[in-house]
Description:
Blueprint: H1 10-35, H2 46-101, H3 107-130, E1 132-133, E2 136-137, E3 161-164, E4 175-178, H4 206-259, H5 263-288, H6 290-299
Antiparallel strand pairs: 1-2, 3-4
Helix pairs in contact: 1-5, 2-3, 2-4
Amino acid sequence: xxxxxxxxxxxxxxxxxxxxxxxxxxxxxxxxxxxxxxxxxxxxxxxxxxxxxxxxxxxxxxxxxxxxxxxxxxxxxxxxxxxxxxxxxxxxxxxxxxxxxxxxxxxxxxxxxxxxxxxxxxxxxxxxxxxxxxxxxxxxxxxxxxxxxxxxxxxxxxxxxxxxxxxxxxxxxxxxxxxxxxxxxxxxxxxxxxxxxxxxxxxxxxxxxxxxxxxxxxxxxxxxxxxxxxxxxxxxxxxxxxxxxxxxxxxxxxxxxxxxxxxxxxxxxxxxxxxxxxxxxxxxxxxxxxxxxxxxxxxx
Length: 300
């Protein structure tokens, strides 16, 4: 349809429509280039937005899982450090027991040796009861027991510590437990706090000192088992952190493929739409001038 009309300027309307479309596309390109994202709203890519948000939640969960595992490593290192000090006390107690086992000391001298022996036992218990991480006592037996002993239903969890690092809630892949046996002197069968008849209660006599040697060996082995278990758990956590970090990186790369803008491609689109807008503005000016031709015809 062609003609020169006064009431309707169809050419200008067509040009205005094209200008509006090109300007909208130019605005979208500008938003993408300024934000660095291909998807800035659901209208850009509804399915892509849904996938991106799921991936972002997964990435955040994985990164928090890494922090959780690092906190667990710090807790284990705290316990291991305290056990290292207990190790020194046990070695000293074994030395004192050996000293009291020989017959070249008098009863009074053996009682003096036993006083240091008991002091070492008391210090072991003090260390075990006072060692904590973020308010969680580590060596007093609160964290001992099987995995099934864990109870997290109350405000304060009981039993072994549950270290959660996965984004779900499946025990096979998302968490495991840290169980730490008691390292008090009585739990290891040494010192006056040990059960009656225990070979490591005292070294006040030569016979008791000799009997304590085997009890001290058992105590050292018991402590070593705790440390070995903690070392294995720390290595496991470190491997878990490595795996979580790789998983987070790969998920981040996938999310970027979906969400991030390709700057080179988008810049090409931006330039194309910019040229179309400039052309449409120029043509709209020309189309709006057609009414003047009609006035010239009317005016003769």
